[in-house]
Sequence to fold (233 residues):
Amino acid sequence: MTTATKTDGMTSSKPSAQYEQARTELLKAEIALKEQVERVAAMRRSLPLGRRVKDYVFREGAPDLTVNSPSSFFETRLSELFRPGNDTLIVDYLMFAPDADRACPMCSMWADGYNAVAQHVNDKTNFVLVARAEIGKLRDWARARGWTKLRLLSSHNNTFNRDMDVEEDASSQKPGVSVFVRKGEDEIYHSYTITAEPAPDQNRGIDPYSPVWNLFDLLPEGREDWFPQHFYH
Fold:
């Protein structure tokens, strides 16, 4: 028998026994998933350092995205992305090929989220966004998206993306995230990379780093075939 309560003229019923049982089983699965996520994170933290990488040279501009003249751009080395006393670096790869007019809409959605939390992330580690597009084009796109808190770097003139296995050729980029560790003053090592592989036998890669997918997973219909747009009207 269901017990009903009345609020503001409307009658609400308690959940059925079937729902309560299903929700209890789901809670057990959610706790198991949390424990698995923690185990995987511990395994990731215990990885030995990967290969030592060279001191790549990128192109960068002023934090103010309205300053976008070629004369305002400058070179920045990988080693210069580490603040004094902070020896870790997270790199987000934006799919934006040199000959493309716009960045990938999916990658742009991720970057929208990163822009919102960048100040928090940068309080603990160093965080940058890298794209193969020329720096002026990248900054134009960033200004249109409102990425005012992200540090933007162009790998247009180096082999960084290819060496990190997030590029097959200039026109074929992969989304992903890498972590680098600095040892001493001049040694930089690759620690970890995860990409968003489309193959069905691959994991969902960087999906956990965007709240959009996690919110959609709460819905009864799930993600379905939804795909982000560059801009919504």
Notes: The first helix runs from residue 17 to 45.
